[in-house]
Amino acid sequence: MNTLKVTIQKSGLMRYYSQLDLVRILERAARRTDLPFAFTQGFTPRLKISFHNGLKLGVEGDILATFYFHEETSFVRLEENLLPQLPHGLILKP
Amino acid sequence: MDWAQFQKPQRYIGNEWNAVSKPHDGRLKICLCFPDLYEVGMSNLGLRIIYGLINEYESAVCERVFLPAPDLAGYLTQTGTKLFSLESKAALDTFDVVGFHLGCELNFTNFLAVLELAGIPFEPSRRRDIIVMAGGLVNPEPIAPFVDVFFLGEFEAKAEEFMEVLKRYKGREARLEAFAHIEGFYVPAYYEVATGEGGARLVPKTPSVQFPLKKVHVKDLNTSYYPTRWLTPYTQIVHDRAPIEIARGCPHHCYFCQARCVYFPYREKKTEYVLTQMEEIYASSGYENLSLLALSASHHSQIEEIIDGAGKLFKEKRVGIALPSLRVDDIVGRLYPRLAALKKVSLTLAVEAATVELREKINKHIDVDAVFEARDVLRSLRLRTIKLYFMFGLPGETDEDVVAIAQMIRSFQRALGVKVNASINIFIPKPFSRFQDVAMDSPENLRRKRQLIQKELGSFPLRRYHISFSTQERSFLEAVLSRAGREIAPVIFRAFVAGARSDSCEETFRWDIWEEAFRDEKIDFRQYTTSVHPRFNPHYTAGGAV
Q1: Residue range(s) occupied by CATH 3.80.30.20 in chain B
Q2: Is 3.30.110.70 the CATH number for B242-470?
Q3: B288–A25: do the CB atoms touch at under 8 Å?
Q4: pLDDT in tens, B301-329
Q5: Between B277 and A46, whose confidence is greater?
Q6: Which of B246, B259, B318, B424 has its CB surrounded by the most CB atoms within 10 Å?
Q7: Number of Cβ pairs < 8 A linking chain A and chain B
Q8: Contact B133/B100 with Cβ under 8 angstroms?
């Protein structure tokens, strides 16, 4: 499995969304792209993503996350496709 | 504003994916309100249809507002801040029209709470510019004194005329007068209630206004508007999936059912339109769960093609597809191989009555035994839970019928080996259903019947089933509010002033407040449930549905 470690910067209104909300936002954004994202197995497949830190509700800042793909995907390709699907207040950094 | 000071601030941000933001200047401004919390309101399809439809007009802007939770409501009151829309945060009283979805009678006090928080006067005569509109109601009379104009039926059918009136006429009075002359619009101020023999009647004050009132519906679901740029929440909502409507109305005629009459006549959407909309909604939202919505999905003449097509479209995409209204005989019969291909199947069965005899009396024809005969088939469907719906207090019901509810829950659990979620509700005779004129079962009887069910279930392990009973007092209130006339408006107002809110919710429902409100207004609420109250007289026709 190919992985990509990225920093997700949360700012503005997006600071009011929880870590669980962030998972939902990223999964739905990912589904709107054609990128080869990996999903979990099981009854309810979810976007495979792991977070290395969290932020309190209402706080702006960086979240370090790992995305999983079933083919090699560069940060440039990820950003090019995923960023337009993200709400204002979320950006991706390598 | 620092939203972090409120619980679940996500409810008030208004920046969801595909939310529409347009500058207000020069546009007609409409704000839609579902008077319940965000998570509930955002699950409503009607609101989304109207939101998308009005925003299609370049000359208009349509925004949303929901009932703020008590913490924000308290803050607004204390700081003298007027309730505002989610998108632009503009105060509600700066809009041309605030449109309320009042499909649930138990939201009437929430509706008044929103008016108060928005600083909109309760009496239409004291409103300066704003028009308070309400739709989704079956019986508008109980809240008619607070509403400027009702919409009866499906808004898509008259959206063009609605926009035209707002464009052509400026000022509240001129607009209301124009609405009063269009089919589907009901402006209560243009009518008075005459009481006499045979109950209350609505009498137009001027002969030119719509009379008799009629509800309107779209003729063709294939060509009528459906929102495909799906407004996708960032936080969890009650029904967290995107529904694709495949049919409206119901071809069956269960005697207790109000929905059949409300959504009459039965119309289907063709496979090609269903599939195109599914594809567009998924592409615009990325929703991981879609559902095929209808009152009775099994009856759709192209249901096989639709399930096959959906399976093909979403095969590789790990999308859950729910068919919440399949008939049990169809699941175990012709649809089984197709459902197995969908991987994830939820089984919801509206059994309503547990014996064949009682189902016969309420005209609900389903073959429940088919489930037990096909238990192996069903066990292979990877079901996690099944959901069962029952009613008690039905006309012609015996104690054996009631006890059979518990027995059936047990049989389902044993046959399928999964957890059973059962919802057991009190039958309420609703206007426009075949049973509209029957009396509700007495409180004593209902209490006794509930005990019969609980006693029968007593020895059965809790982890294998979950039962929810509807609250008796709440069911009575719902019956009263759905069957009463305008005379009950002062009771609703009193209950609201005394603090009644979110009456549909177990935790917040306060029967003592309502009881006192009825007492203070000297209205005996029992008269509405024991028989047909002489004042109950539906003022519009349901288009021949009854």
Answers
A1: 242-470
A2: no
A3: no
A4: 999 999 999 989 988 888 988 887 777 77
A5: B277
A6: B246
A7: 62
A8: yes
SS3 B306: helix
Residue whose entry in the numeric block shows the structure tokens 């006794």 = B448
Which positions in chain A touch B284 (Cβ < 8 Å)?
32
Contacts of A29 in chain B (CB under 8 A): 286
How far apart (Å, rounded) are the C-alpha atoms in residues B268 and B300?
7
Closest residue by Cα to residue B297 from B225, B262, B248: B248
CA distance B319 to chain A (A): 8
The confidence band for B75, taking pLDDT boundaries of 50, 70 and 90, is very high
Closest CB to A28: pick one of B13, B287, B318. Answer: B287
Cβ atoms B539, B213 nearer than 8 A: yes
Q: Report the CATH fold assignment for B3-214.
A: Rossmann fold (3.40.50)
> Is A17 close to B235, i.e. CB distance below 8 A?
yes
Q: What is the pLDDT of residue B201?
A: 78
Give the pairing type, strands A2-10 and A61-69. antiparallel
**Which among B4, B282, B285 has the least Cβ separation from residue A16?**
B4
CB A86 within 8 A of CB A25: yes
DSSP string, B134-190: EES-S--GGGGGG-SEEE-B-GGGGHHHHHHHHHH--SHHHHHHHHTTSTTEE-GGG
Chain B residues within 8 A of A44 when measuring between CB atoms: 320, 344
Q: Is B289 on the interface with A (CB under 8 A)?
A: no
Whether the CB-CB separation of B219 and B263 falls below 8 Å is answered with no
- From chain B, the residues in CB contact with A30 under 8 A are 286
Number of domains making up chain A: 1
Mean pLDDT on B119-141: 95
CB B382 within 8 A of CB B345: yes
Residue A87's CATH number? 3.30.70.580
The pLDDT score that the predictor gives to residue B537 is 53
**Token reading at B12:** 């008030």
HSE-CB of B424 using CA atoms within 13 angstroms: 28
Q: What range defines the domain where residue A17 resides?
A: 2-93
Is residue B263 classed as helix, strand or coil in its secondary structure? coil
Q: Is B2 on the interface with A (CB under 8 A)?
A: yes
In the β-sheet with A90-93, what is the strand arrangement from edge to edge?
A49-51, A61-69, A2-10, A90-93
Q: B426-458 burial, b if ≥16 CB within 10 A, otherwise e?
A: bbbbbbbbbbbebebbeeeebeebbebbeebbe
Best of A32, A35, A46, A47 to mutate (most B CBs within 10 Å, chain B): A32
Residue A48 in 3-state DSSP?
A: coil
Task: Give the β-pairing of B131-135 and B97-101.
Answer: parallel
Q: Do B288 and A28 touch (CB under 8 A)?
A: yes
Distance (Å, whole) CA B46 – CA B38: 15
Residue B436, min C-alpha distance to chain A (Å): 43
**ipTM above threshold 0.90:** yes
